[in-house]
Amino acid sequence: MERKAGSTTVTAKEVKAALEKTRTLTSTEEKALRMRHGAGAPSKTAPLPRAAGDNEELADELLVIEMQLMKAMRARTGQTKSGSKPQVAAARASEKTTSSGNAAKDKIVRALRKKK
Predict the structure, then answer these.
(1) Helix (H), strand (E) at residue 94
(2) Where is the composition biased (Polar residues) (predicted)?
(3) Among 63, 38, 40, which residue's Cα sits nearest to residue 50?
(4) Most Cβ neighbours (<10 Å): which of 39, 42, 58, 115?
């Protein structure tokens, strides 16, 4: 095998363009190439790859799990489905109007309300 006389430089743009075209690399290989050559992600608005791929049954199972987790998170944080927090806002409003002037008592009451 002969050695090449000259050297070439690979730019981040070239690596980024090549990575967008190829589908044979694993995610860790792609990450290593991006880190090595300083090539960023293809697009910040691009959708994430689907974990289920073409498997519809797995996609349905993942959707059910995601829905259960979102429901549990909403219950834990007190959010409604619309995303607003009317309960927290109402509690803060009533807290301001009923403060007795005793800072220690107010601090204890706030801590107990957070525990709910």
Answers:
(1) helix 86-97
(2) 1-11
(3) 63
(4) 39
DSSP state of 18: H
With the CA atoms of 34, 37, 43 and 49 taken in that order, what torsion angle do they form, in degrees rounded to the nearest 10? -20
Rounded Cα–Cα distance for residues 86 and 80 (Å): 8
d(CA 66, CA 89): 27
Tell me: pLDDT of 71 over 90.
yes
Average pLDDT over residues 25-54: 81
Predicted confidence band of residue 89 (pLDDT cuts 50, 70, 90) = low
Give the pLDDT of residue 66.
93
Q: Could you read off the pLDDT of 21-38 as tens digits, one per residue? A: 888 888 888 888 888 888
Q: 16: which 2 tokens? A: 């980024």
Does the CA dihedral 15-16-21-27 come out positive or negative?
A: positive
